[in-house]
Amino acid sequence: MHALPQSTWSGDIHCVTTWSKLETSFEGVSVDLLLDAAGVQPEAAYVLATSTTGYTTNLPLDDVTGGKAWVVWSNEGRPLSPDHGGPVRLLVPHLYFWKSAKWVTRLTLLEHDRQGFWERNGYHDRGDPWSEQRYQGD
């Protein structure tokens, strides 16, 4: 993954518990580049991110392509610590941060949506902070 062209994302991140971190930066590789390198399946419409702990989160493919998501390994120029998802985590900054899975090991392309851990436990399937999509039904 480090052999692919790296990029830096800078901006704000938002947690479902109502905190935000302003003007932060992450370094990694865009999901667009990873999917291109892997050969995106044309029938895929969703991505399921899986971590070393078995944690999963679901995302529409549209929310991780078009320059909207990265697999990152550093924050503010320093390697991600294990507490913050190191060695690599997903970064989907336009959605609530539970969608940015820590310790990510796999991105699975799916034809149909499959809820992840928090979504099966009542959190919103998408998690748009600007629409306050915290829980199912929001």
Describe this structure in words.
The protein has about 140 residues and is mostly beta strands. The chain has one domain (about 5-15, about 20-115): Sulfite Oxidase, Chain A, domain 2, CATH 3.90.420. About 10% of the residues lie in helices and about 35% in strands. It has helices spanning about 30-40, 115-120, and strands spanning about 5-15, 20-30, 45-50, 55-60, 70-75, 80, 90, 105-110. The strands form two sheets. Strands 1, 2, 5, 6 and 7 form a five-stranded antiparallel β-sheet that branches. A three-stranded antiparallel β-sheet has the order 4-3-8. Strand 3 and strand 4 form a beta hairpin. The longest helix has 8 residues, at about 30-40.
Outline the secondary-structure elements.
Blueprint (H helix, E strand, L loop, with lengths): L6 E8 L5 E11 H8 L7 E6 L4 E5 L9 E6 L2 E2 L9 E3 L12 E7 L6 H4 L18
Please provide a brief summary of the model.
By secondary structure, the chain is mainly beta.
Can you give the helix content as a percent range? under 10%
CATH superfamily: Oxidoreductase, molybdopterin-binding domain
Helix/strand order? EEHEEEEEEH
Strand pairing plus helix content: what structural class? Answer: mainly beta
* Biggest beta-sheet profile: 5 strands, antiparallel
Mean pLDDT: 93
CATH fold description: Sulfite Oxidase, Chain A, domain 2
Strand content: 25-35%
